[in-house]
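ARCHIVE CARD
CATEGORY: sequence design from structure
SOURCE FIELD: tokenized fold
FIELD CONTENT:
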């Protein structure tokens, strides 16, 4: 079992930015138009913004406000699929016999976002990039809670997924639309999460776990479960 407090959260998806937007979505969850819209990151200098993909912009848009005023803040970045559009472009160029861009490649690797975060914030605290299965939220929580246990006063957890290119549609079915969720975690007993085995044939959680968490937070639920394959994550909040 892991224990932690959620001190604050932020989230972004196309058309959903404010708490009111997410409150409305959580009451009637629906698929969103996976358009090319991107979050506002005007708090960054223009030259820095130009290097950011939408995945990176999503991560920065939810993480930057949560980190405001905090120094030496460890970061755990979670994405199952990572920079699939950028990687697909690189593979397309390779298949067409075109020269590959070193910049494109360097920004396609899984830890590129935390590298950019470190540079742009001047942050030298411990940072981890996690690529897990559909329950990456919980795996990221384990990593974050380990940092809290080691003495970090707070840890920033960012979970984000980009809409994959259509060519991947047969294999990637767990990204209903682009989204990012940021959680500022602190030590405490507000939340307890434990792991149990799923019964045979148990259906997986309908929406990505990070989005399901927002639904339960906004509804004020104190107990719920997230199921992924053979794993069931049991969430409980102390009233």
């Amino acid at each position: 079992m892991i224990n932690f407090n959620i001190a604050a959260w932020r989230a972004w998806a196309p058309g959903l930015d404010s708490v009111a937007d997410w409150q409305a979505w959580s009451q009637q969850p629906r698929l969103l138009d996976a358009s090319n819209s991107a979050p506002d990151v005007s708090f960054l200098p223009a030259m820095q913004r130009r290097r950011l993909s939408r995945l990176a912009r999503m991560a920065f848009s939810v993480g930057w406000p949560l980190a405001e005023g905090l120094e030496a803040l460890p970061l755990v970045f979670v994405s199952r699929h990572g920079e699939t559009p950028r990687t697909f472009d690189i593979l397309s160029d390779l298949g067409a016999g075109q020269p590959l861009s070193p910049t494109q490649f360097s920004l396609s690797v899984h830890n590129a976002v935390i590298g950019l975060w470190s540079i742009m914030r001047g942050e030298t605290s411990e940072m981890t990039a996690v690529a897990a299965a559909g329950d990456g939220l919980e795996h990221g929580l384990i990593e974050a809670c380990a940092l809290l246990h080691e003495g970090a006063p707070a840890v920033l957890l960012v979970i984000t997924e980009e809409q994959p290119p259509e060519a991947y549609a047969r294999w990637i079915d767990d990204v209903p639309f682009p989204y990012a969720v940021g959680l500022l975690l602190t030590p405490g007993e507000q939340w307890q999460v434990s792991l149990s085995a799923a019964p045979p044939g148990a259906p997986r959680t309908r929406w990505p776990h990070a989005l399901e968490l927002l639904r339960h937070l906004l509804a004020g639920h104190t107990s719920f479960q997230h199921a992924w394959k053979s794993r069931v994550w049991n969430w409980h909040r102390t009233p």
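CARD ANNOTATION: The chain has one domain: 2-188. The first helix runs from residue 19 to 27.
SHELF: design records, drawer C
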